[in-house]
Amino acid sequence: MDNRRKKQRRASSRRESQEVSSVEWQFINMTEQEEDLIYRMYRLVGDRWDLIAGRIPGRKPEEIERFWIMRHGEGFAAARRHGKYR
User: Fold this and answer.
1) φ, ψ of residue 14 in degrees (nearest 5)
2) What is the pLDDT of residue 16?
3) From CA 53, how far away is CA 75, in angstroms rounded?
4) 67 backbone dihedrals φ, ψ, rounded to 5°
5) What percent of the chain has pLDDT over 90?
6) Residue 6 burial (C-beta neighbours within 10 Å; 0-12, 13-18, 19+)
7) Residue 2, CB-side half-sphere exposure with 13 Å CA sphere
8) pLDDT at 39
9) Where is this region: Disordered (predicted)?
10) SS3 sequence, the chain?
11) Choice between 13 and 58, residue whose per-residue pLDDT is larger
12) 83 Rama sector, left if φ>0, alpha if ψ -120 to 50, beta otherwise
């Protein structure tokens, strides 16, 4: 019984320590209607990406959040100025 718990702890700590690299994100293209809806929903509900994605068919909360970060994030401002993310 004790060995099983140790294995579970090791497995869970491995899952928690995995990092996701965001260095090379590809920009997500949205239609004008999708962008408009995202902006309006963000003003209403804030960063509740699951609620916003529920209003846009075929979009996942992660896509909506990534789109928002790439449009409004400070780290991507220089890349936008140089035309990397448009």
Assistant:
1) -65, -40
2) 54
3) 23
4) -60, -45
5) 41
6) exposed
7) 0
8) 95
9) 1-20
10) CHHHHHHHHHHHHHHHHCCCCCCCCCCCCCCHHHHHHHHHHHHHHCCCHHHHHHCCCCCCHHHHHHHHHHHHCHHHHHHHHCCCCC
11) 58
12) left
Amino acid in position 59: R
Q: How far apart are CA 21 and CA 23, in angstroms?
A: 6
- Token output for 44: 């209403």
Question: Is 68:53 a contact under the CB 8 Å cutoff?
Answer: no
